[in-house]
Write a structure and sequence with these properties.
By secondary structure, this protein is α+β, with helices and mostly antiparallel strands. The protein contains 12 helices and 28 strands. The strands form 7 sheets. Strands 17, 18, 21, 22, 24, 25 and 28 form a 7-stranded mixed sheet that branches. A 4-stranded antiparallel sheet has the order 4-1-8-7, with helices on one face. Helix 6 packs across helix 11 and helix 8 runs parallel beside helix 9.
């Protein structure tokens, strides 16, 4: 459903170094600083983000101050690194000597991990030195803890009602206070509960510290919210990982009951570990850095329902002064995906047109550039050029069939199920679909593959059928079979054009929405198939000798 995607993010840290910088000081070496600029979401203007410290007298600075920034897969996030020689205490950059700059996107840094590029200075002809950028994901602990507990002979002090016990877990803070990190659901009407399995991130559960004290309260659920404490115990993650056994059998102690009953008080029941397993959790960035390639296919609707391209009312109308919705959608999404594609070549497919030379045959799977031996278009600009050329070569017709295109890309995904490649199919359409049963079947068949399908609806058509294909709310099914996972994301482009405003803003918002689910879909596929990312390959040739 449009607007339902949650934006997955990661915090990344950039380490900055300069190499062989230009010396602008006469009697000493430059005193360099790096200032990082970014473009706020929806803006083309550069804004200062952060500065490193200034290092005196060096042409090869290694800045200790890291640049942390939230990474969004679905945004382009342009960055600019500008190095200056600091000549005074002034905060204004105009008062200092400009050494050089480097521009890129955060996605490029994340994909490459290590980038070593020359600095550019339009005002100085010659060698300005280079910048070295190393990007790491900031997660101190990438582990999840799968746990299950059972209880035995819990004390019930209310003769007139049954126990509905639940567990609360608290981690100790440095000041001795406790923070709630997890609460189980109550077990119903039992003094020997078997609580449901649950998973928690260790970075939240114990701040990644296996020996941090964990307090567990067992409470009796009350609808009023005035839950009654049955008893408590203390443990650590290290102890819990030992699993079921005597070391993980805990007596619940209620301090108030203990004070009242004195030596006659033993405990208020037992809680035992039934399952405890720590597993590594990988991020989308881990797979990208491990060499996973993203291969994007673009499919364009050339059916007659789009209107005659020669008229201004057509969705395919070629207006040199204002690109149509198809072009804007291609540019919006393609420019993001391009950063992750190694060779920058995109196979572009068309459907729903009559083909030359006799225009008698309707094709639902043809190459937009017209070259059956080489269907690839170089970069997004190449895709747009092939699209314009195709409009002058084919005859818009119909019907609108999605299944052939989906099955075409699925064949590629079927042959690359090992995690080294992931496929994205971007379908641009006016939404008048005519093979819904076959399309549903194709999507269900493809739902177990390393494939995400993004559908962008252009124009003002009724997109109810497209919404049905997006399984955010109701899992898609065909002939009694359900999709293994939701691999379809649909958005109508018109939602991003409402209210006028900056057309570039519409592009950014569109890209953000349609790509937001891709990282989670990648992780879902990898997890379901027990695929771990390959180790990061670092080329020593990228690193200068002094960084080893």
């Amino acid at each position: 459903m449009a607007g339902s995607a949650a934006a997955p993010t990661s915090l990344v840290e950039i380490t900055i170094s300069g190499r062989n910088l230009r010396d602008t000081d006469v009697f000493s070496k430059s005193d360099p600083i790096c200032v990082v600029f970014y473009q706020p979401f929806g803006s083309r203007q550069w804004a200062e983000y952060k500065r490193t410290e200034c290092i005196d007298n060096t042409l090869n600075p290694d800045f200790a101050k890291k640049i942390s920034i939230t990474y969004h897969f679905e945004e382009q996030q342009p960055l600019k690194f500008m190095l200056y020689d600091i000549d005074s205490d002034s905060h204004s950059l105009d008062h200092h000597d400009f050494l050089g700059k480097y521009e890129c996107t955060l996605a490029q840094l994340v994909s490459a991990r290590t980038v070593h590029k020359p600095l550019v200075n339009e005002n100085f002809v010659g060698d300005n030195g280079s910048i070295l950028l190393v990007t790491e994901e900031l997660t101190s602990c990438k582990e999840e803890f799968d746990l299950q507990f059972v209880g035995k002979q819990l004390e019930n002090r209310n003769w007139f009602s049954s126990l509905n016990p639940f567990l609360e877990f608290f981690k100790v803070n440095e000041d001795g206070t406790f923070t709630l990190v997890h609460r189980t659901n109550p077990a119903s009407r039992t003094e020997s509960p078997v609580w449901l399995d649950f998973s928690v991130k260790l970075r939240s559960f114990c701040s990644g510290d296996y020996d941090r004290n964990i307090k567990v309260n067992c409470q009796n659920f009350q609808k009023s919210g005035n839950h009654k404490l049955i008893g408590s115990f203390y443990t650590t993650v290290r102890r819990l990982t030992e699993g079921p056994g005597p070391s993980n059998t805990y007596y619940l102690i209620n301090e108030e009951r203990k004070k009242k009953k004195g030596s006659s008080y033993k405990n208020s029941g037992e809680v035992m570990v039934n399952k405890a397993h720590v597993r590594q959790v990988y991020s989308f960035i881990d797979y990208i850095k491990g060499g996973m390639e993203i291969n994007a296919f673009i499919a364009i609707d050339f059916t007659a329902s789009n209107g005659n391209p020669q008229t201004a009312h057509s969705l395919h109308y070629i207006n040199p002064g204002a690109p149509n919705q198809y072009v804007r959608a291609i540019q919006s999404v393609g420019e993001i995906i391009e950063d992750y594609d190694t060779d920058k070549y995109f196979p572009v497919l068309g459907f729903g047109a009559r083909m030359p030379p006799d225009f008698q045959k309707v094709s639902h799977e043809f190459f937009v550039n017209g070259d059956t031996s080489n269907p690839y278009c170089y970069r997004v600009n190449g895709v747009v050029e092939a699209y314009y050329s195709c409009l002058n070569r084919v005859q818009l017709y119909g019907p609108t069939n999605f299944a052939p295109i989906i099955n075409h890309v699925a064949r590629f995904a079927t042959s690359s199920r090992g995690g080294d490649k992931y496929f994205i199919l971007l379908i641009l359409t006016d939404g008048i679909i005519t093979d819904m049963p076959q399309t549903k079947e194709a999507i269900v068949n493809a739902s177990s593959l390393p494939l995400s399908i993004i559908i962008v609806g252009v124009g003002e058509a009724d997109f109810a059928n497209m919404e049905e294909l997006d399984g955010d709310v109701v899992r898609l099914s065909s002939n009694g079979r359900y999709a293994v996972q939701d691999i379809v994301q649909f958005v109508p482009f018109r939602d991003f054009l409402k209210g006028g405003g900056d057309p570039n803003m519409a592009r950014y918002r569109l890209a953000r929405e349609v790509l937001a689910e891709v990282p989670d879909q990648v992780l879902s596929y990898m997890k379901a198939n027990n695929i771990t990312p390959q180790p990061v390959q670092v080329s020593n040739t990228l690193l200068p000798p002094d960084l080893g």
